Amino acid sequence: MPNPPSDAAWLTAAARLAARGRPLSRPNPAVGCVIVNDGKVVGRGWTRPGGRPHAEAIALAEAGDAARGATLYVTLEPCAHRSGRGPACADLIAEAAPARVVIGARDPDERTHGRGIERLGEAGIAVETADCAASRASLAGYLARAEHGRPHVTLKLATSLDGCIATASGESRWITGEAARAHVHSRRAMADAILVGGATWRADAPRLDVRLPGLEACSPRRVVLSRTVEDETVETIAAPEEIAGLEAVQYLYVEGGAQTAAAFLAADLVDRLELYRAPVLIGAGTPALGDIGLASLAEAHGRWRLAERRQLGSDTCEAYERARIGSEQCSPA
């Protein structure tokens, strides 16, 4: 018989559930929870729009009495603070009496940090924490806010094989094909806000919305990096560092152009790079990036690691994460 799934596998499954809550769980993080009893999933949940109910509350309600003696896997330490919007998840779990709780990441919120774990321990529940890359990745926006005081930033570039984002005349629609463009829209739907530079806004008048059937309501807030754009339909910031002031934004999706992309990279504000490449050569076109402030080739190495690669029609998509982002696997703390 095959070996039963490991704790790491169950935490990864919980992280995948958490993705269903992003970004509509704001201002709360998108959390995922799986309850397993005798090798079977008896409850699962993820944070719902507006932040309530929490993932644990949903999973416990689904599990019912089957939660007793089970193992509960959750991507983030269960909250320990009570509010008018609902009970503390640590209290709900203690009442349900699972035998064991495995947590993918500690909560940096001082109202919970360590207190959720302590409350479960006081209830006689065995608690284990893990430094879990899948959990941390699913909480990237929440953790970026807590650790860096700003949103998690994804920079998207769509280029030719020779690294151009437009022809010499400025034509850029469309370098990539329909499948790649649809994937970009799915990524927009996962963001709280989307940002372009002022030159791109003035030249292209981009809609910056989500045009996938059923996901139109997930269109992110629109932000322009410019001191001169005056448009009531968008927010403006004057410098990349001002993203810290974008209220209720955990995930920011930056789409360019070249100077805006370079400005975010030069400020070391990009956490994830999503590079779409079409099998075309442009030659004397517009390069994807301007100066990003590197003084030597040595400075360029070691900054990025490949996180994902996929084929989208005739185009390829590669995602790279900044090397400062967590570990490669779940491991006991």
UniProtKB/TrEMBL annotation:
Residue sites binding substrate per the record: S172, R188, L208, R211, E255
PROSITE patterns: CYT_DCMP_DEAMINASES_2
Entry-linked Pfam families: dCMP_cyt_deam_1, RibD_C
Entry binding sites for NADP(+): A158, W174, T200, D204, G257, A258, Q259, T260, A261, A262, A263
Cofactor(s) it depends on: Zn(2+)
Record EC number: 3.5.4.26, 1.1.1.193
Transmembrane found in the keyword field: no
Full protein name: Riboflavin biosynthesis protein RibD
Protein species of origin: Pelagerythrobacter rhizovicinus
